[in-house]
Amino acid sequence: xxxxxxxxxxxxxxxxxxxxxxxxxxxxxxxxxxxxxxxxxxxxxxxxxxxxxxxxxxxxxxxxxxxxxxxxxxxxxxxxxxxxxxxxxxxxxxxxxxxxxxxxxxxxxxxxxxxxxxxxxxxxxxxxxxxxxxxxxxxxxxxxxxxxxxxxxxxxxxxxxxxxxxxxxxxxxxxxxxxxxxxxxxxxxxxxxxxxxxxxxxxxxxxxxxxxxxxxxxxxxxxxxxxxxxxxxxxxxxxxxxxxxxxxxxxxxxxxxxxxxxxxxxxxxxxxxxxxxxxxxxxxxxxxxxxxxxxxxxxxxxxxxxxxxxxxxxxxxxxxxxxxxxxxxxxxxxxxxxxxxxxxxxxxxxxxxxxxxxxxxxxxxxxxxxxxxxxxxxxxxxxxxx
Length: 386
Fold this sequence. Notes:
The chain is of the alpha/beta class. The protein folds into 2 domains: about 45-160 and about 305-330 and about 360-375, Response regulator (Rossmann fold, 3-Layer(aba) Sandwich); about 165-300, 3-Layer(aba) Sandwich (Rossmann fold). About 45% of the residues lie in helices and about 20% in strands. The protein has 14 helices and 13 strands. A 7-stranded mixed β-sheet has the order 2-1-3-4-5-11-13, with helices on both faces. A 6-stranded mixed β-sheet has the order 7-6-8-9-10-12, sandwiched between helices. Strand 6 (about 185-190), helix 7 and strand 7 (about 215-220) form a beta-alpha-beta unit.
């Protein structure tokens, strides 16, 4: 089994064309009308722990029992989300649909609008461009639908990782390796995603930790474009022209795997290097299991497990039950001791969710919301680390 594994007023292109012909007064009136629902919780808020025994409320009327996934691209992490969602839909009697935008923000807006037009009851989104998608997601929620997003708002249930802690867990593993195996000295490459404000804390953690080692030099600190394996390969190939001797590479698994391929293509891969990523992608896990190579660590953010949870709560919402407003996917460093259990969990996320002890290793839930309190959706960049 293979898995590819974090508000405001907007106008469609057609609407913009129409508005160009209006006077300023008409434009202002049209903009006011576009905000046709509550803004949600816009101020940073700390939510209480989720209460699974909260009173039920009304099921949303007139919506289909359909779970739909607006997927940004086909990287392994997102394929894992797709798998978890499809498993939850099957277990809970929901029809499942998926639309992949292939990193096209405008296409994703169109796809979500089509979901809304067909009265889909639940939408899960991994936004390509959070700002352009926000209004469409709000419309789904104003109609009574359930929306979960992977990292950015707005959402009925917003999923995030404690991003600084995620970066710190990987950095601590790299620092230990540098001290134990490289004599405290290393040339380091950081492959970042700083352009996504919600992910930036993980890279701040990397810089904070590495800055404490006087023998470490960060020779490159750059965001690959695109953020995938091909982007990682291209970026690392360029870096090697100026800095041929690299000891450590950190970033998301998808770009670090590309960096590994570039090192191998250039004849610069060494067994004593430390390459580490975030997401627990299957290809990274396989490299760690193989042993003896540069890929030493991956921080698990099990996408099938949280995908299953998001899908399960979608079914609860449609049944009129209370669901969390926010959820952490907890980071953990994969080692030879725990990879076997991790891989088993990837294949059967429903069993993980059904077992509170195993589920709590991956997930932590906050707040309560249901159809009757849907105006309290999350519309700020929530993090448990606030």
